[in-house]
Design a protein that fits this description.
Layout: E1 22-27, E2 37-42, H1 72-75, H2 85-96, E3 101-104, H3 111-125, E4 130-134, H4 138-153, E5 160-163, H5 171-176, E6 179-182, H6 184-191, H7 198-201, E7 203-208, H8 219-236, E8 241-246, H9 252-259, E9 266-268, E10 278-283, H10 294-304, E11 310-314, H11 317-333, H12 345-353, H13 358-364, E12 370-371, H14 377-382, E13 385-387, H15 389-393, E14 400-404, E15 407-410, E16 415-418, H16 421-428, E17 440-445, H17 451-459, H18 472-482, H19 488-495, H20 499-506, H21 518-538, E18 542-544, E19 549-551, H22 553-560, H23 565-574, H24 581-589, H25 603-611, H26 626-639, H27 646-672, H28 676-691, H29 709-717, H30 723-728, H31 731-738, E20 747-748, E21 761-766, E22 769-773, E23 782-793, E24 796-807, E25 830-836, E26 841-848, E27 853-859, E28 871-876, E29 884-887
Parallel strand pairs: 3-8, 3-9, 4-6, 4-7, 5-6, 7-8, 10-17, 11-13, 11-14, 12-13, 14-17
Antiparallel strand pairs: 1-2, 15-16, 18-19, 20-21, 21-22, 23-24, 24-27, 25-26, 25-28, 28-29
Helix pairs in contact: 2-3, 6-8, 9-20, 10-11, 18-21, 18-22, 19-21, 22-23, 22-27, 24-26, 26-27, 27-28
């Protein structure tokens, strides 16, 4: 072991009949004598899944025609004439009743169509209620949005909104929506404040796709939102119908019981009932070195699917490219290098002309595509060696699926770990095309000792356990903040709504309990709640009194911004009244949200090279730490440094995506503490993230993509150092300033002479590249008007500061922020900071978003006897150098 950190090993062992009383694990050193250790695992209270799982028999029914819908508009949604056997068997309960449903069936069984039947029933019977569809991945959300926009929106006239990390609809869109498609995290954050969000209580149908992922990393969030919706339904007395979609389960009855599904609504079909039967071929060529599996992969393609589509799943983005190149080489060795091409040459060239990724362009010439998260959306939609995410994200079946190894490198654990069995099932489920194949084929290259394990669970259903216990703190904290939990008994009652409670009673040993007797169970839940409360109290999130529990500032901020309690606890201990920008960057990078930032093989070498280029030093002994990598990615973003490999580009997008809410939480913590200097510094950090520039090292003029060193020098010589000064500069003056500069050709005035640059078009021409960017029209010119209003109340004077904000740039047509170096679209926002800079005191903070103009107000502290030194500072959350400082001293 390289370090003193605990080393985790995972391996599967068979359990024979009759069950042995115990297993022994012996660790033996390969270097030292008598340095072994023995550990005993007792199997006394082991609860195994039922040997005979109760499956739903697939009845020999005549396929139901779509005319059974009895509605011509609904029938037109489907291009096929008959529902498949599974849809036929579940049709009556789905379409003609309000019963809750749990539908367990293999991938490719048409479960989404089944869910649509429940949606159509709601549209028929309760058209004013909403459908919430929960999908585990953004890619699945996008797939549903694309499909349902063509059918349910255009043909039925329904309104649909998407809620993911990429997109949050406004309140009016949510209120008017008939269908909401969301990731679990987004709906968790939204539904926490269900008391004040009427659209949450207007949900009549909740569809849970891939509900068997309850046992996966993000399972606790899925478990919490279902438990909360059941609780909301009981409180509002408005029934919510639940439809759960999953693979076949060994403990379907437990899951059904939790969802409120009775016998008529439970469908748990065997894995063998796929519309296209699957043939499995366990390969025996497994080797930890992935490239040694490329030859058997090529052989499997030639044997099982030489002329039909093939999907090859690999463990990393890098392996997609390496595997594809090897397959091309093997095909060339067979003197048939273009054997995988099945389209005319002119069509192929047309496709290639649209591809931007060079690796993809090269492999496509030989009929082999690549798919991974690093491709841009356009390239991804064109196209296949792929990473495991494709199994979930794209409904793209093939005749043959090859799974090239069942392990991937976990950078956090610094070891190879097995793919979850759910991922393997999902990958295999892509084999077999219902319209074309009589059967699908899957080849799994697996380590020999694991062969029996995979053979068992690939043909038999697997049990789903709860993983809520490991992530209970954040969810308990959120319920304390919303008021659902105000004392220990509330928390215990809250747990009884969860799937964890159901599994505790059935399989107590899995959760560390000897028995599930009521007394032991109550004691366990009380102990679990007590330890969770104590951890939250130690972190500064809650306050425990004799009778109740109350949220504190850190806990409220964690819930509001959907952050882990460990993150805000770290903020509370490390942020001070005068924290520097460098320290803020370290604190931001240290957030628990970056624990899962990927660290791949040998990336510490890339990190070391990156560390040599960035301004702020990092700990060189921790270059394999995800938080150090996050720090380096931020600094590379601000410096606009070239990233070493394409994986880092995708990683940077992920890091930036998370950073907004983390920084906003840091700002709130600083403001609540009254720390003016730290608050402003943190706001500058957010501006840096938005613009990809250093606040204290770069000129704000670099926010213009067309800016050059020559032009910058010319502008600085004339005293123009900010965008605001550039906006105020008349066109004629600008021509004079830039006339001697090599960059003068960049500017061609469209507006009247004498008008500001906000009416000008900026033309960028460098070498072979030429583009026209109306940069200046994107920037606001905010005018601020202040007035103090005084009124008497209870014998004392109360002062209110009335504020009017107006954007004087009439060329602007949107309040979207101009942030070309940030990967997402974002609305502009402004902070109003009421403070005394000379005393470094912050009295009030308000955040405002507006388009055109806004009128608002801020109450002045009653403790102020005069307004000497009091100022209002306007700070942008997107633009560097747009701050305005206004004294209110003379307004009273």
């Amino acid at each position: 072991m390289a370090r003193a950190d605990p080393q985790k090993l995972s391996f599967a062992v068979p359990i024979f009949e009759p069950h042995p009383p115990m297993y022994y694990i012996r660790a033996v050193s390969d270097s030292w004598l008598q340095a072994d250790a023995l550990y005993t695992i007792t199997l006394h209270n082991l609860a195994l899944p039922e040997v005979q799982t109760s499956h739903t028999e697939l009845l020999d029914l005549k396929p139901l025609p779509v005319t059974a819908l009895g509605n011509g508009t609904f029938e037109a949604l489907y291009k096929f004439s008959h529902f498949n056997p599974i849809q036929t068997q579940a049709f009556h309960v789905l379409y003609h009743t309000d019963k809750n449903i749990l539908l367990g069936a293999p991938t490719g069984s048409g479960k989404t169509i089944s869910a649509e039947l429940a949606m159509l029933h709601l549209f028929n019977t309760q058209p004013d209620m909403k459908v919430i569809y929960i999908a585990p991945l953004k890619a699945i959300v996008r797939e549903r949005m694309t499909d349902w926009r063509k059918r349910l929106v255009s043909q039925l006239g329904k309104k649909m909104v998407e809620m993911t990390g990429d997109y949050t609809p406004d309140l009016m869109a949510l209120l008017s929506a008939d269908i909401i498609i969301s990731t679990p995290e987004k709906w968790d954050g939204i539904s926490r404040n269900w008391h004040s969000r009427s659209y949450v209580t207007k949900v009549g149908l909740m569809i849970l796709d891939e509900i068997h992922l309850l046992g996966a990393d993000r399972g606790p969030i899925l478990e919490v939102i279902v438990s909360r919706m059941r609780y909301i339904s009981s409180q509002t007395e408005r029934r919510v119908r639940f439809v759960g979609l999953s693979t076949a389960l060994a403990n379907a009855h437990n899951l059904a019981d939790w969802l409120g599904v009775d016998e008529t609504g439970l469908f748990n079909f065997k894995p063998s009932v796929r519309p296209v039967p699957l043939e499995g071929y366990p390969g025996k060529f497994y080797c930890p070195r992935m490239n040694s599996m490329n030859k058997p992969t090529y052989a499997a393609i030639c044997t099982h699917s030489p002329t039909k589509p093939v999907l090859i799943f690999v463990s990393s983005r890098r392996q997609t490219r390496l595997t594809a190149l090897d397959l091309i080489q093997f095909a060339a060795s067979d003197e048939h290098p273009r054997q995988f091409i099945s389209m005319p040459e002119d069509s192929l060239q047309m496709v290639l002309s649209q591809v931007t990724d060079q690796n993809l362009k090269h492999t496509l010439q030989f009929g082999i595509g690549l798919h991974h998260a690093g491709l841009n959306d356009k390239d991804r939609s064109l196209v296949l060696v792929c990473t495991s995410t494709l199994a979930w994200g794209v409904n793209l079946p093939a005749h043959l699926v090859v799974i090239k190894g069942t392990e991937y490198y976990d950078g956090k654990a610094k070891r190879y770990v097995d793919f979850p069995i759910t991922d393997i099932l999902q990958m295999m489920g892509r084999a077999g095309r219902p319209q074309y194949d009589q059967h699908g084929k899957a080849v799994i290259l697996v380590h020999e000792p694991k062969k029996s394990f995979y053979k068992k669970f690939l043909y038999e259903p697997f049990p789903v356990e709860s993983s809520l216990r490991e992530q209970l703190h954040d969810h308990i904290n959120a319920e304390i903040v919303t008021g659902t939990i105000s004392h220990k008994e509330d928390a215990v009652h809250y747990l009884t709504w969860t799937y964890l409670f159901r599994r505790l009673m059935v399989n107590p040993a899995y959760y560390g309990l000897e028995h599930a007797e009521p007394g032991i169970l109550n004691s366990y839940l009380s102990s679990l709640v007590q330890s969770t409360f104590e951890d939250l109290e130690d972190s500064g999130c809650i306050k425990i009194t004799e009778d109740n529990v109350e949220p504190l500032m850190l806990g409220s901020i964690a819930s509001q911004y959907y952050l882990k309690y460990t993150t805000v606890s770290m903020f509370g201990s490390k942020i001070g009244p005068d924290t520097s920008l460098e320290v803020f960057l370290q604190i931001l990078s240290g957030a628990s949200e970056y624990d899962e930032l990927p660290l791949r093989h040998n990336e510490e070498n890339y990190n070391e090279k990156l560390a040599e280029k960035v301004p702020y030093a990092v700990d060189h002994s921790r270059l394999d730490d995800p938080h150090v990598k996050a720090n380096l990615l931020f600094q590379a973003h601000f410096s606009q440094s070239e990233l070493p490999i394409s994986d880092y580009v995708t990683d940077l997008k992920s890091v930036l995506d998370q950073s907004i809410r983390i920084i906003q939480a840091m700002i709130d913590i600083c403001a609540n503490s009254g720390w003016l200097s730290s608050t402003i510094t943190c706001m500058h950090l957010l501006q840096m993230v938005m613009q990809g520039l250093w606040f204290d090292r770069d000129s704000p003029l670099w926010m213009l993509p067309c800016m050059t060193d020559d032009l910058l020098s010319s502008l600085h010589k004339k005293g123009i150092a900010s965008i605001q000064q550039l906006l105020d500069c008349p066109s004629e003056s600008l021509r004079v300033i830039t006339g001697s500069s090599a960059a003068s050709r960049l500017y061609q005035a469209e507006a009247d002479p004498g008008s500001g640059l906000s009416g000008c078009q900026v033309n960028l021409s460098t070498g072979a590249e030429s583009s026209s960017i109306k940069d200046m029209r994107h920037f606001p010119q905010i005018q601020v008007r202040l007035r103090i209003h005084k009124k008497e109340s209870s014998g004392s004077e109360i002062f209110t500061l009335n504020i009017r904000l107006e954007d004087a740039n009439t060329q602007r047509r949107t309040a979207k922020a101009f942030i070309p170096r940030y990967p997402k679209v974002k609305d502009e926002a402004w902070w109003l900071v009421l403070c005394n800079p000379s005393a470094s005191e912050l009295y009030a903070l308000k955040r405002a978003s507006f388009s055109g103009r806004l009128q608002t107000h801020m109450d002045l502290p009653s403790t102020l006897t005069n307004f000497q030194g009091i100022k209002l500072i306007l700070v942008s959350d997107s633009y560097i150098g747009f701050e305005q400082e206004h004294s209110i001293e003379g307004l009273a």
